[in-house]
Amino acid sequence: MSSILVCYGTGEGQTATVADRIVDVLADRGHDATALDAADLPPAFDLEAFDAVLVGASIHVGKHQPAVREFVSANRDALAARPTGFFQLSLSSAVTDEARRADAAGYVDAFLEETGWRPDRIARFGGALRYSKYGFLKRVVMKRIAREATGDTDASRDYEYTDWHEVEAFAADFAAFVEGRLGARSPEPDGRR
């Protein structure tokens, strides 16, 4: 069993929900997994307590949460010393339009270039439109973006684009990678190793 941190940044909560689902998958495989919001890390936070790390962020106006960028930049050496992965949520990953999907990949590339981090695994998931949580100005901006991306402009409801099978497959793949790299195995179905 490995100790795995899932450190994330979130705007309206979808990335937190994805982080929690990843933690569930990792725990089901026998790992001690913990999800923490990068904006709420305690001052004495010690990354050395974890064998592996997943970092997640969402895109808002072309940028990831500053707390996630700061976490990765401040811990780049510690991250390089253990198995790591990065996952991103965006509207651009929710559509089939290749230009928009390329935009989503570009956001990841820019983040990795800016932080100098090279994660072992990367995933891009569709996010959500949380009209119910947006203020007036953000709702107007998001409706404009959504009109071009998904067409979902009815602000009286929220929309979720996350493919939960993709999330679970990514978490399982990361768990297998950690198990292979650190020599840990997930328990057998009857609980034996």
From TrEMBL:
Signal peptide: none annotated. Gene3D superfamilies: 3.40.50.360. It holds the Pfam family Flavodoxin_5. SUPFAM superfamilies: Flavoproteins (SSF52218). One of its GO terms (biological process) is heme biosynthetic process. GO terms for molecular function: FMN binding; menaquinone-dependent protoporphyrinogen oxidase activity. InterPro entries: Flavodoxin/NO_synth, Flavodoxin_dom, Flavoprotein-like_sf, Protoporphyrinogen_IX_DH. This is Protoporphyrinogen oxidase. It comes from Natrinema saccharevitans. Residues 4-169 form the Flavodoxin-like domain.
